[in-house]
Write a structure and sequence with these properties.
alpha/beta; about 350 residues; Rossmann fold; 8 strands; eight-stranded mixed β-sheet; 2 domains; de novo design (two linked rop proteins)
Length: about 350
């Protein structure tokens, strides 16, 4: 696990380097959970003193540590569920004390269950344009809080969506990813409109495999006016290594790579038939070991208005350029969604 990814998701630098150098004899999830425990203890002590700013920061660092703790389990074990419950609890504790942002848990009706999301808003009386952020096979929801903070500083709201197959939507709600996922994004926009009064245009930002989900959402729902794809392919296949294979099977709720491949084909995009009126921005890292530039370029053909930006030494989703990437992208969304 690269330290750059841990920092991108909000871990404390000391925690990230300590976890990266943890002895092989110590189970990964235990090492990460111990770091979270220390941050939670600091958070409680700060809250008891009335130092709410410190408490909020420590709860969020604990959340980040627990994100990596639960990643030790690719399948839905009891331990993974417990760690994810703790993760959500730490993120909620930060939300309860936050005096700068409004952070609200959403339960979005979908199918026979619901999707979990977090609505992160500036403290303003006016509805703000919203950007839906979605992750991929292992990083979800609160993992993208730093991006939500950056959007809020620019006057935008964020929906940290855990789509079917992801996070609590899967672990608690029992929903898995399939070809109907686009409807979950539309249901999310309906919920935001009902909650805030904002009716569009919306943005959608997909990271890793979530880039495909974001592009599909923009193709299917005309309320999206701006779409970013950060590190995805239009025609994904199961990857030939154990971690990715187990993760995609859990995401899709299947038991073999053959079954996974069949479901993935229902998600493929073809610019010859799939088009969006949204403006599309594609981000690519030249050192990405998972997605090639040629795979990413296909997304550009989904829209008459599309742009590509490449970081030649960029890791997958630009973990190693996370500050510049986030600032560039948040500025881009502001310029497309917020009238100045």
């Amino acid at each position: 696990m690269p330290v750059t990814r841990m920092l991108d998701y909000g871990m404390d630098h000391w925690d990230a380097t300590h976890l990266s150098n943890a002895p092989a004899s110590q189970p990964w999830h235990e090492a990460a959970a111990q770091l979270a425990d220390a941050q939670l203890a600091r958070a409680k002590a700060a809250a008891d003193r009335g130092d709410v700013e410190t408490a909020v920061a420590c709860y969020r660092r604990a959340t980040a540590a627990l994100i990596f703790a639960q990643m030790a389990f690719n399948t839905d074990t009891a331990a993974k569920r417990t760690l994810y419950d703790r993760l959500a609890g730490a993120y909620q504790a930060a939300a309860d004390l936050d005096t700068e942002l409004r952070v609200e848990r959403l339960s979005i009706p979908f199918g026979a269950s619901h999707c979990t999301a977090w609505l992160v808003r500036p403290r303003s009386d006016h509805p703000a344009p919203a950007v839906v952020i979605v992750g991929g096979q292992s990083g979800w929801g609160p993992a993208y809080h730093k991006q939500a903070e950056a959007l809020a500083r620019r006057g935008l709201s964020t929906v940290l969506l855990e789509a079917p197959g992801q996070g609590e939507t899967r672990l608690s709600g029992g929903l898995h990813l399939d070809g109907h996922v686009d409807l979950a994004f539309s249901a999310t926009l309906d919920t935001v409109r009902a909650r805030t009064g904002y009716d569009g245009p919306f943005g959608v930002w997909g990271n890793s495999f979530g880039g495909l989900l974001a592009a599909r959402a923009a193709v299917q729902d005309g309320r999206f006016g701006a779409c970013c794809v950060n590190g995805a392919a239009t025609k994904p296949e199961p990857l030939p290594f154990r971690t990715a294979s187990e993760q995609v099977q859990a995401l899709l709720g299947v038991g073999t790579d053959e079954e996974a491949a069949a479901v993935l084909r229902t998600l493929w995009l073809d610019p010859a038939v799939d088009q969006t009126t949204a403006e599309v921005l594609v981000l690519h890292g030249g050192a990405d070991p998972l997605v090639t530039l040629d795979q990413q370029k296909v997304f550009l053909d989904l829209s008459a208005r599309s742009t590509l930006r490449v970081w030649e030494d960029g890791e997958h989703t630009m973990y190693n350029h996370s500050a510049e990437r986030t600032e560039f992208l948040c500025d881009w969304f502001r310029s497309r969604l917020l009238a100045r």
